[in-house]
Amino acid sequence: MSVHLKALRKHLRHQRRSVSRFRHKKSQQDILSRLIRFKPFQQAQKIGLYLHAFGEINTNQIIEYCFKQRKEVYLPMICTMNQQLHWVQISQTQYRNKRFSYHPLGMQEPMASRGLHVSTLDLLIMPLLACDVHGTRIGMGGGFYDKTLASARHKPFRLGIAHDFQLLQLRLPRQPWDQPLDALMTPAKYLHFKR
Asked: Does 144 carry a binding-site annotation?
């Protein structure tokens, strides 16, 4: 990883952690308002989401809205054997009772022995550290989403959600293994990318 990319990651992590509680709440509401009118979301039945842990866009309202619309909610669980994400369906009761375990990396995961492959999802809503105007996404550095999507026969629609400052005007370097987004949604903008 280049020195520039390392510094950029560090800066964005700090900026994301500095977002106020009020701004988090407002960003979450703005993105949910956009999602409700978003055709791939309306048409999707099986939706992969994440539990926010490091300053990402809060997903509470999105998850609750999915349950209200009788959509199936799947959360990622890291498979230790291949370092890929497996997707575990959760119920509203499980979500509200916070029946999750902590992964050593610091995020919560569903408590299950196995999950489904990402190919079974219709829509994958992904966290990120940064995204450029070409759909190149930088994650937290583990490569879990890239490895998982690279092995998918059927690729679900990939939607990144982020704070406005995470959309960068500079072109991010894209490696052959990087899996680009289909679209990015921020509180103020929506971008669709050609894959």
From this structure: yes
How far, in Å, CA of 124 to CA of 86, rounded? Answer: 12
| pLDDT tens column, 130-147 | 999 999 999 877 788 998
Residue 48 annotated in ligand binding:
no
Q: Is 141 marked as a binding-site residue?
A: yes
| Domain ranges for the chain | 3-192
Assigned fold of 3-192: Rossmann fold (3.40.50)
Q: How many residues does the chain have?
A: 195
pTM: 0.92
Tell me if 64 is assigned to a ligand binding site. no
Q: Is 72 annotated as a binding residue?
A: no
73-92: buried (b, 16+ CB within 10 Å) or exposed (e) per residue?
bbbbbbeeeeebbbbbebee
Question: Is 139 annotated for ligand binding?
Answer: yes
d(CA 130, CA 136): 8
β-bridge mates for residue 102, sequence order: 108
Question: In 69-166, where does DSSP find H-type helix?
Answer: 92-96, 144-150
* 142 in a known ligand binding site: yes
Question: By the 8 A CB rule, do 121 and 48 touch?
Answer: yes
